[in-house]
Amino acid sequence: MFEGFEEDTFDLGDSRVFARWGGSGPPVVLLHGHPRTSSTWHRVAPLVVDAGFTVVCPDLRGYGRSSGPATTADHAPYSKRAMAGDILGLMDRLGHERFHLVGHDRGSYVALRLALDSPSRVERLVLMDCIPISEHLENLTPEFATEWFHWFFFAQSHVPERVITADPEAWYGADPNSMGAENHAEWLNAVRNPATVHAMLEDYRAGLTVDRADELRDRSSGRRVEPPLLVLQASEENLHADVAKVWGRWATDVRHAVIESGHHSAEEAPEPLSRAIVEFLRA
Questions:
Q1: Which of 131, 136, 166, 203 is a good FRET partner for 107, with 20 to 30 A between their CA atoms?
Q2: Which of the residues 184, 198, 240, 263 is marked catalytic?
Q3: How far apart are CA 234 and CA 31, in angstroms?
Q4: Residue 38 pLDDT more than 90?
């Protein structure tokens, strides 16, 4: 995977962030979702490099080979603001003042927070398979709660760790053929680590508490996403919302497109996904 890419782990103070980077041209950061690592982009990253970009793929704080501080009662060390700070620190270390930003799943919430807090750093923003956490919670339906039950299960104390670490491979389930053998091996090594599982759950606990509160403050103050925004939605992903309408309330320049794929489109549909990203970044 990632032939021609460099990789290293960066000490950023209260976190250590593993990242891969390669290519030349305008920088693009690709942020993975749960429970993946940066290797989920192994089919997309080379295509974006070939299109003339520098691509940076970090493991989010607590995921994969990245680590963070001890958890606290308010879950703030695993807030999206803390994770966004990691990305800013990483890009500073790599020498990039401004960059394009792509986030999928939980990575999309990190990307959203970074774009809201530091709009001068982001050229263009791509968010995949998400609407703001606060929007989901304010429009909660039995259907959403049933299909997305893991949000609320992960928020419980201790029990999710006990359930998942008993057999993480069975809990998450993943096909090495669709993921790619090396990507699957990296993912499996991550989810077999109890510390990684705990950190990933803290991401969700922060989502329902501190991250939700941050979003509500954004909305009450009228803060909106300033960089041009492309929202991509996998055809098989049901967000139980009018995605384009929701993002129209959060961004001034927003576009919406569908990728024919399941949830993990970077692995399942890398060519159409890469085309959509590159076409938007070049616009």
A1: 166
A2: 263
A3: 16
A4: yes
Q: What gap in Å lies between CA 126 and CA 61, rounded to an integer? A: 20
First-to-last C-alpha distance (Å) of the chain: 29
CATH architecture for residues 6-282: 3-Layer(aba) Sandwich (3.40)
Asked if residue 164 lies in contact with residue 192, where contact means CB atoms within 8 angstroms, the answer is: no
Q: Where are the domains of the chain?
A: 6-282
The pLDDT tens digits of the residues spanning 230-242 come to 999 999 999 999 9
Distance CA 215, CA 133 (A): 8
Q: How does pLDDT run across 174-183, given as a tens digit for each residue?
A: 999 999 999 9
Nearest one of 86, 80, 90, 65 to 112, comparing CA atoms: 80
CA distances from 221 to 23, 96, 204, 215 (A): 39, 30, 24, 10
Is 263 one of the annotated active-site residues of the chain?
yes
What percent of the chain lies above the pLDDT cut of 70? 100
Nearest 5°: phi and psi at 125?
-125, 130
Q: Do residues 268 and 261 touch, judged by C-beta distance below 8 A?
A: yes
- Among residues 42, 75, 100, 105, the one annotated as catalytic is 105
Q: Per DSSP, what are the bridge partners of residue 254?
A: 229
Residue 42 among the catalytic residues? no
